TrEMBL record:
Residue ranges of the TM segments: none
Sequence ranges assigned to domain Thioesterase in this UniProt record: 27-254
Protein's UniProt name: S-acyl fatty acid synthase thioesterase, medium chain
Name of the encoding gene: Sast
InterPro entries: AB_hydrolase_fold, TEII, Thioesterase
Keyword Lipid biosynthesis among UniProt keywords: yes
Single GO BP term: medium-chain fatty acid biosynthetic process
Amino acid sequence: CFFGLVFFQEMEKLIACVHKRPDALCRLVCFSWAGGGTLQLAQWGKLFNNSIEVFCIRFPGRETRFTEPFAKDMTSMVNEVTSVLLKELKEKPFAFFGHSFGSYVSFAVALHLKEKYGLEPIHLFVSGGHAPHSEGFLAIKSSPISDIKDEEILAYIKTLGGTPPELLHNEDIRKQMVLTFREDIRVLQTFSFEMAEMDIPFSCDITCFNGSDDKVDVQAWQELTSGDTSFYELPGGHFYLLEPSNESFLTKHITRCIENASL
C-alpha cells in the first residue's frame, strides 16, 4: 500500500490531467515549451472526445514543483518521465505531442522507451521544433546560454510571444521565467542525437506542425521513422498553437490520427 501511495504522489507531481478518462482507448502525453508549465496543454483534456485522455508533463522547478531543483540534463528528465509513466504506457496505446522544447523532450523519451523497453508511441506529434539532427537544432545547442544576459533572454521571450504581457510586468515572475527558460535550454544542450550511429529509430507516423512565420527546420523529421511523415503549417508565429482556431485544428487532426492508428 505504501508503494501505491508513493507511486500516486509521483504521478500527481509529474502529470497534470484535468479531465480523467480511465476508459479512454489512448493517452496523449503532452510536453510543453521552454520556460512553460502545464496550464495550456493540460486544458486540451477538455477538447478531446472520450477516446483520448490527456496527460501533460510537469517538469521540475515550476508550478507545484517550484521548490524542486531544475533537471540537470536531458537524461534525468527522460528517466523521471519513463520511470513514473512506464506502467501507464504499457497498459494502453499512447501518443506524444511536444511543442518546441517539448518536441525534443518527447523525442528523447520516445527514443529511450524504444531502445530500453521496445515501446513506441502510436503517433509522434511535434510542433515548432527543429529535427534533432538538423542544422537548426545544432545552432540551439551551440548558443552560449550562460553568457546571455537576462534582458536578452527576456527580449527573446517577448518576440516569441505566447506569454501574457501582464505576467511580464511582475518582476518576480519575470525573473523566474528567465531562469526557467535558461535552465530548459541548458537541459536541451545536453541532448545529442546522432542519426548515423543507428537504424531509423521509429516506425510510427510523425506529424510536424509549425507556424507559418516561424523558421523551423522540420523536413529532416521524416528521416526518423519508417512510417509516414506529414507537415502542416498553420497561420502565426512560434506560438501559433495558442490561437483558438489553430488549437481546434490541432486537436481535431490529432484525434483523427490517433483513431486511424487502428486502435
